[in-house]
Design goal:
By secondary structure, this protein is an alpha+beta fold. The protein is 49% helix and 16% strand. It has four helices and eight strands; from the N terminus they run H-H-E-E-E-E-H-E-E-H-E-E. The protein has a two-stranded antiparallel ribbon with strand order 1-2. It has a two-stranded antiparallel sheet with strand order 3-4. A two-stranded antiparallel sheet has the order 5-6. Strand 5 and strand 6 form a beta hairpin. The longest helix is centred in the middle third of the chain and has 31 residues. The two termini are 38 Å apart.
Amino acid sequence: MHVSTSVDYWDEVGEKFYTKYKNIRNLHTEWKRLVSRGLPIVGPSGREWVFKQKANWRGDMEWPVNQIINHPDQGTCADIMMLVRLMLSTRLKRMNLPEVLLLSTVHDSAVLDTPSEHVQRLVNLFHEIFRDLPATIQKCWGYTWNTPLACECSVGYNMGDMTEMKPTL
């Protein structure tokens, strides 16, 4: 994979992205407008992001555009993964599976340690959790989620030896 340091190259990549996803361009434009007026960006969970102008390498004051368009996205994903962890914990207790351990969540992934006899049940459980997420988001935050939240489950003894598993719901 080629990674360019050319500003023009990345400007073109960004323009192609915004051409394909016009509503995201509109959202990012609205976020920049809010921030320039000193107002916070408020995410679906109620989390707020406030940004201030910073001096660039020349000493000129500018808005941290990369942070403005990235932090709300990443923060909202973190909030969603928090809901996933809570839903998982509640459902694992109901299923009486104390030997299933949640080891970590990183960005959009959850890593569990479990005996092999529970794997398919857990794959099904994660797909149920992701199916139920929009209703949980509505209940917890009063926000109508309208973007698909996909779930993929892979199983293996280590991260280098994984096999995707499908639900049997």
